[in-house]
Design brief:
- The structure is a single chain.
- The protein is α/β, with parallel strands linked by helices.
- The protein is built from 6 helices and 5 strands.
- It has a 5-stranded mixed beta sheet with strand order 4-3-2-1-5, sandwiched between helices.
- The protein is globular and about 40 Å long.
- The model has no long low-confidence stretch (mean pLDDT about 90).
Length: about 160
């Protein structure tokens, strides 16, 4: 089952009701947090794998409800994970879960703080480096994160399915 964990503010804006008790997650590869941010006049979404913090940045225009958020996540994952060993994770562990979605709250403040760190980096690159969201996602995935013991998401994510 694909688990999507929007921030409370994003859930409220999209009309998503989050359960009070977090549901059981059996597939860590298909467990993603979602947060929204702005750069200039544009809205963006950042999705981060809950276990590895692997980031996927997408434009937020047109996302007005839960199903559209899920569709944007799947489209972003397809774009960012195509090619290489990450495509295997996408095909085997995410695509099969895509039709079945469960909503959940973000599990802790450390994940939200790490997402905010990634957002600060993303804002800089979107504003001053003129990068596409897919290029930006790959660049952010290489950043060492303290929540991962100074490992980078692109090194941790491939190990989740083992």
């Amino acid at each position: 089952m694909l688990t999507i964990r929007p921030t409370k503010m994003l859930a409220r804006r999209l009309g998503i009701e989050l359960p009070k008790a977090p549901p059981v997650v059996t597939n860590r590869v298909a467990d993603w947090c979602a947060h929204e941010f702005r750069v200039s006049r544009h809205r963006y979404l950042i999705f981060c794998n809950t276990a590895s913090l692997y980031p996927v940045v997408m434009m937020a225009s047109g996302v007005t409800d839960g199903p559209k958020l899920a569709a944007r996540l799947m489209g972003g994952l397809q774009t960012c994970l195509r090619g290489g060993e990450l495509e295997i994770q996408f095909q085997r562990r995410i695509v099969v879960e895509g039709p079945f979605i469960q909503w959940a709250p973000i599990p802790g403040r450390s994940i939200l703080g790490s997402m905010n760190d990634l957002i600060l980096m993303a804002k800089y690159h979107l504003e001053y480096r003129d990068m596409s969201p897919a290029e930006l996602s790959r660049k952010l995935a290489k950043a060492p994160m303290s929540a991962l013991g100074m490992n980078s998401p692109d090194r941790v994510f491939p190990t989740l399915g083992r």
